[in-house]
Amino acid sequence: MKTVSYPVVVLLTFFFFSDILIAQEKKWRNGILTDEFIRQYMPVPSVHAATIAETPSGVITAFFGGQYEGNADVSIYISRHNSKGWSSPQKVVDGSVKGSERKACYNPVLFYYPDGELILFYKVGKNVQDWSGYLVRSLDDGKTWTEPEALPDGFLGPIKNKPVLIGDKLICSSSTENDGWQVHFEITEDKGKTWRKTAKINSKPLNIIQPGILKLKDGRLQIICRSQNEHLISAFSSDNGETWSDPVALSVPNNNSGTDVVTLQDGRHLLVYNHVKAKESAYVDKARTPLNVAISDDGITWNASLILEDSCIGEYSYPSVIQGKDGYVHIVYTWRRKNIKYVKIDPFLLVARRFAEGQWPE
After folding, report:
1. Interior/surface letters 289-309, b for 16+ CB within 10 angstroms, e for the rest
2. Which domain, by its residues, includes 75?
């Protein structure tokens, strides 16, 4: 009888498990066409909270960056993508406010109007409780920008995720963290010149912020919110965002980390989020991993589709997602607070695998 030496057994075992790992990796990467950094080296040590929009010149992203989140040097940067790749990050605004000390910038949100006006919303403050809302405008796809405009007192604009435009009505999902976590909506029908807001839609014990908006097939709107309640939380509107149902929990876990959603051209919905059960990991930066993509036909039942990142090192967080006119899905997100990652997806190549009780399929 022929025997196999120990080194050969070890080698065969290595190749066997390597093949399994490669197969698993490919299994959760179907549909990814591009996976790259915005820039190999960022102009500042720390970056976070990217947003993305599409213009006729290509996609554009914005993010905040500086020494560290909350430091007075933190400013808003943009990078534009064309056939040559991503441009070097350009500082658009900082937290200088007339007659007062410079403060940090936070959470930029880009929105492109069909008539060619690109708006960049952002916040300025020492911390989230001190935030004030501002915006700047561009008429040349982000090459040049106007001077900052302050939003009315008490208005912050879209808090993290992109607005939805219905007719002339721009519906901005917003939230506050002053007296518990509260969600409301800020609406402008003249491109940010005048504003009004809805009533808050939740109260304790539900603590939710940073809604993303979906458009359902029956004409309703649905929001999906970050929460401190172990699950993603939803609410629904039948009157284009004026009033909302009581919030309800979805069967998708949330470990107090930001998400984003988009309704695709074919009617499906796509969600980018950290698939982490809150009880399995305390809320610390390293728990913001893995970063996942799920898809749904109705906004209620979600299916596992992609794993964008899966490492215990650092964090992968605060995604922003859109679908371009060509049908491709574009995602940007924070990569370990050191860079911004960009992923391009063909949604027709996405697979859907059911998960039960919040457990991602093996």
Report:
1. bbbbbbbbeebeebbbbbbbb
2. 48-150
